[in-house]
Structures are given as structure tokens and as C-alpha cells.
Amino acid sequence: MIKFISASFFCIFSHTALAANLSNEETMKLNFASDFDLRHTQINNDTVMGGLSSSRVSINNDAVNFTGLVSLDNNGGFASTQFNVINKIHTATRCKLLVKGDGKRYQLRLKTAALQFGEAFIAEFTTLEGEISEHIFTVDDFRIGFRGRTIQNGPALDFAKVEKVGILIADKQQGSFSIDLHTIAFEK
């Protein structure tokens, strides 16, 4: 189901409708509305490698809530979710994230067709416990990473070519976690 915030534009993540609000042609703001379908959201936890972490995605007060438990048992230690991006802003020079967190550190992960083996463009941010915080990133804030390692000499990030947006928690942060994703904006 698609909820229109602006009649001129909408964006879909992984067959999950996210309303987009264009205040002008240089900004795409993805608002996580309360009536969209999460069935096709991708969850990728350390269970793919034998770990025991778990996570889920749900709707919480017009935000996407990503919550779960990170376990270090069986050499585990991460949980992630991602959405497909259909529409893009070709002039975007920064990405703005509005989240309500739990005081833990997360990764914003962007994927493009230039990354073919599971790598991601990664920018880290720390949330404020129980508070909404804004995090602004330029392409220079991202590094290419794969399975916990930084990849050197990779392709450059172009926000206009982002196909997937994800959130990951790792770095031996054992225990429960919860983050509400309110908006993601790609702006000039």
C-alpha cells in the first residue's frame, strides 16, 4: 500500500511503500508511514554464519522500528535490515537520517550496482538513548566495508546510484537493541 505525502512523487523500498516528500526537486525525503507493508523487508542476521542474533522490523508511531538481540555466541554478533530504493535524486550531495535510538552505535549501509560481492558503503553513527537525533552524511563520510573489513581502492559513492539502504548493528554490542527510523533524506 502506498501513502502519498506529496502528490508529485513517491518512493518504494523493497516492495514496501515509503512516502516521499519533495519540498523541491533537490530533496527526496523518505517518511516511514504507518500503513505500509513490511513483508518484503530483508533481514540479515549472523544466523547466516551460525550466529544466534535475532531481529525484526515493525511499525512504531510512523517510524520503522528495527529491534532485536545481538548475541556473540557461536562467533556471531550482528543484525541488519535493508530496503530497496526505486526512485533517486540525481543531484543529492548529502544523506540525512532522523532516528530515535537506544544509545548504541549503528551503521548506515548504502549499496549500488558497483558493489557486486556483498560490500556496502558504510557510515557509522551513535544514537541518543530515547531521543530523536539527526545525522548528516556526505559521500566522504562513507567507506566501503565487507564482513567487518574496510575495502581499499573501491568505486566512489554516488547517492544517485544507491539501490539499497540498510541499518546494521555489530561491533560486539551484545544485548537488546532498538532504533526507530523516522526519515532518510537525500538532499543537494
TrEMBL record:
InterPro entries: Galactose-bd-like_sf (IPR008979), NADH-UbQ_OxRdtase-assoc_prot30 (IPR013857), NDUFAF1 (IPR039131)
Pfam family, one: CIA30
Positions of the NADH:ubiquinone oxidoreductase intermediate-associated protein domain: 31-180
Annotated signal sequence range: 1-19
SUPFAM superfamilies, per the entry: Galactose-binding domain-like
Keywords in alphabetical order: Signal
Family of this protein: Belongs to the CIA30 family.
PANTHER family named in the record: COMPLEX I INTERMEDIATE-ASSOCIATED PROTEIN 30, NAD(P)-BINDING ROSSMANN-FOLD SUPERFAMILY PROTEIN
Protein name: CIA30 family protein
